[in-house]
């Protein structure tokens, strides 16, 4: 259930093991967060579609526009299939609960990225403030900058505490995204027609370390206002667990599904789970890693034998020092110049050229060898 990175990965391995696999998804196309959450300048749809077509050719069936718990019940899935893998992701936007959060011009970060993914223009003003400093906030900011918007990110902690990928933060600075650090949102300011006209922020100062290992932001009682036409909330995502609870699936605060980390099973033995639905918002690589473990566990349970290793060839290499090692610098992949990113979603990290790739594989990576 779910055609994001976890669901696609599980399907890829299970169909190769000989199982009949059907993937249901609420969206009209496969990909999940890879398609509807990550902008094309980071992951072009053409690259994603190539991978999806491979999975389809292997025999995996897809059923779209089918929402878990609403369009199809978990009991129905359990009766119809020998095993069910829940990879429904974490799409529920965390609410900030401040005055004015229901004004015209207030959006959720995930909703903005979904609209942009299907080439729809969100009804945003020219000046946009984004609250939050995770990957959704940075992705939304960089996407809107490409559309010519004036974007400001508001974050209540220091720059060093931003949870977004460091590479994305660096690129957002290169694209001259504005930042207001140590600033906590207080009120979404509106006009007489309840339209956004600004954001009132409270300036913060640093206190002692909190349980996350970061310095705790302390209110100063001093306020400022940032004029804007639109406000985007991107302070985190949760798992929508309403249907999970109704179906007897144990969850943690925030909706995350409780699983046995050895078998990937939930509180219902035929139901397995993984990806962001278990970990909360994480990376695609981590979701795919969990799905691989789940596929192995599902196959072992259904077939009553361990066969997963048969999918892979044994690989061995000689850990010897090259006869004539050469000292060469690391190859740096090409990046699209900032001036060429405006007005489009062309891929920024273009990877190695053929020559660079050949040079890179020829480098000596034995760090214990002195040249």
From TrEMBL:
A GO molecular-function descriptor: oxidoreductase activity
UniProt entry tagged with the keyword Transport: no
Domain FAD/NAD(P)-binding intervals: 2-291
InterPro entries according to UniProt: FAD/NAD-bd_sf, FAD/NAD-binding_dom
SUPFAM superfamilies, per the entry: Nucleotide-binding domain
Alphabetical keyword list: Oxidoreductase
Pfam families assigned to the protein according to its UniProt record, in alphabetical order: Pyr_redox_2
Presence of keyword DNA-binding: no
E.C. code: 1.-.-.-
PANTHER family: GLUTAMATE SYNTHASE [NADPH] SMALL CHAIN, GLUTAMATE SYNTHASE [NADPH] SMALL CHAIN-RELATED
Protein name stated in the entry: NADPH-Fe(3+) oxidoreductase subunit beta
Organism: bioreactor metagenome
